[in-house]
Amino acid sequence: MAKFMDVHQNMVGITAEELRAAHMADLAIEGDESVHFEQAWADPEAGVVYCLSEAPSREAVQRIHERTGHPADEIHPVPLIV
Amino acid sequence: MAKFMDVHQNMVGITAEELRAAHMADLAIEGDESVHFEQAWADPEAGVVYCLSEAPSREAVQRIHERTGHPADEIHPVPLIV
Q1: Is B82 on the interface with A (CB under 8 A)?
Q2: pLDDT band at A16 (very low <50, low <70, confident <90, very high)
Q3: B17 contact A CB<8A
Q4: Residue A52 — pLDDT band, cuts 50, 70, 90?
Q5: Given an 8 Å threshold on Cβ–Cβ distance, is A82 in contact with B19?
Q6: Distance (Å, rounded) from C-alpha B54 to C-alpha B57?
Q7: pLDDT, average across residues B48-77
Q8: Which one is the CATH code of B2-77: 3.40.50.720, 1.10.10.10, 3.40.50.150, 3.30.70.3090?
Q9: How many angstroms separate the CA atoms of A16 and A27, rounded?
Q10: Which in A13, A48, B49, B67 has the greatest CB count within 10 A?
C-alpha cells in the first residue's frame, strides 16, 4: 500500500455538497480496489481538487475515480510525507 | 484564517531529509506571518511537492516559502474539505 495525491482540474464552481457527494461515491466502492480515500480539498475558484488516498497502485485509484465519474488528471505516489 | 494547498514543481529527486529540512525551515519562521504549515507530501519521481497550510492569505504563505528558498509555483485556497 502507498499514499497517493491525485488532482482533478476543471472543477470550477464545485460546491461543498458536490465535493461531499463525489467523496461519498468513492468511499462506497473503494473497497473493491482496496483503496481508501482519506481526504479531499477543493479550490472552487480555480477548479482544482486534491485528493489523498492510500492504495495498492495508481491504477486502482483511477479505476475507482473513473467508476464514480470523475477520473483524475494526475495521480502522484507520495512516498515522502512530513 | 484559511486553508491553502501549495504546489512546488521541479523537485525531482527530493529526499526525505530534504523535505524534512525544508518543512522545518518553514516552521521556524511561519509565526512571523501567522502561517502554520501542517503537512507536506512529495513525489520525488515527478518532482512535485504538495504542502497544506493554514494562513491569513496566499501572500503570507508565499512570503514564508520565499524566505526559506522554495517559493511555491501555485498556492490554492481550499475552503472546501471533506
Answers
A1: yes
A2: very high
A3: no
A4: very high
A5: yes
A6: 9
A7: 98
A8: 3.30.70.3090
A9: 16
A10: B49
Contact B41 A78 (CB under 8 A): yes
Which residue from A33, A11, A32, A34 is spatially nearest to A22, judged by alpha carbons? A11
- Provide the residue ranges of all domains of chain A, joining segments of one domain with +: 2-77
C-alpha B73/C-alpha B21 separation (Å) is: 19
Question: Could you give the ipTM of this predicted complex?
Answer: 0.95
Cα of A75 vs its chain's centroid, Å: 9
Q: C-alpha cell of B54?
A: 493554514
Identify the residue whose cell numbers are 491504477: A59
DSSP string, chain B: -EEEEEEE---TT--HHHHHHHHHHHHHHGGGGT-EEEEEEEETTTTEEEEEEEES-HHHHHHHHHHTT---SEEEE--EE-
Q: What is the pLDDT of residue A40?
A: 98
